[in-house]
Specification:
By secondary structure, the protein is α/β, with parallel strands linked by helices. It has a single domain, classed as Spore Coat Polysaccharide Biosynthesis Protein SpsA, Chain A. 30% of the residues lie in helices and 24% in strands. It has 6 helices and 9 strands; from the N terminus they run βββαββαβαββααβα. The longest helix is centred in the middle third of the chain and has 14 residues. The protein is globular, with a radius of gyration of 16 Å.
Length: 192
C-alpha cells in the first residue's frame, strides 16, 4: 500500500516557550529530524501546521490544520485530505516532537491495519494516536464525530475502528515526546 506521511506540527508549544518544531536537539531542529524520518518512509510527505510561520521553509509541502478543529484532530483532517488529494489510500501521522520513533513504525502499522480504518502505536500501556496509520476513507466519519462535540484522536480512532500495536520501552520508550525544557534536556542526554 502506498502511503503519505504527514508531520503534525501545529501545536503552540506553550510548555516549552513556543516554536517547539524549531527547537534544537543535537544541533538539528525537531522538525528537521521529523522530515528526515518521514522522507525515509515515503516520497509523499508534508507537514501540518496552524500557521506557516511556526516552521519556516522546510522543503516539503505544508498543509494547514482545519481551523475549525482544535488540537491534533485538525492536523489529522488536513493529513487525510492531503493523502486523498494525492491519490493514496492512507496516511501515516507522526508528531514533530518525538525524536526517537522506531525504525519499524510504518512497516508494523502497515502489516497490522487489516480491514481497520486506523492502527495506532502504543508503548508502556499508553496509546499514541499521533503516531498512527489512517485510511483516507475515515474522512467520511468526521462530520458525525465533530457533531458529537468530541475532539480527541483516541475518540476518533474508536469511531472509525482501529487496532493498537505495542512497542517495548526498554531501554528507551520510542514514543518519548518533548513538551518542556526538562524533556528537551532529557532528550539531549538520551541522544548522547
Amino acid at each position: 500500500m502506498k502511503i503519505a506521511v504527514v508531520i503534525l506540527a501545529g501545536g503552540e508549544g506553550k510548555r516549552i516557550g513556543g516554536n517547539k518544531p524549531l527547537r534544537l536537539l543535537g544541533g538539528v531542529s525537531l522538525l528537521e529530524r521529523a522530515v528526515c524520518y518521514a522522507s525515509g518512509i515515503s516520497k509523499l510527505c508534508a507537514v501540518a501546521v496552524r500557521d506557516e510561520t511556526q516552521i519556516g521553509n522546510i522543503g516539503i509541502p505544508v498543509v494547514r490544520d482545519d481551523p475549525e478543529i482544535e488540537g491534533p484532530l485538525g492536523g489529522l483532517v488536513a493529513a487525510l485530505r492531503f493523502a486523498r488529494d494525492e491519490g493514496v489510500s492512507a496516511v501515516l501521522t507522526i508528531p514533530a516532537d518525538m525524536p526517537f520513533l522506531p525504525t519499524d513504525l510504518a512497516d508494523r502499522l502497515l502489516d497490522s491495519i487489516g480491514q481497520s480504518r486506523a492502527v495506532i502505536a502504543c508503548s508502556g500501556g499508553h496509546q499514541h494516536p499521533v503516531c498512527g496509520l489512517w485510511r483516507t476513507e475515515g474522512l467520511d466519519a468526521f462530520a458525525e464525530y465533530l457533531a458529537s462535540g468530541r475532539r480527541s484522536l483516541k475518540g476518533f480512532a474508536k469511531i472509525v475502528g482501529y487496532v493498537a500495536i505495542d512497542w517495548p520501552v526498554d531501554p528507551l520508550d520510542p514514543f518519548f515526546n518533548i513538551n518542556s525544557e526538562q524533556d528537551l534536556a532529557e532528550a539531549e542526554r538520551l541522544l548522547a
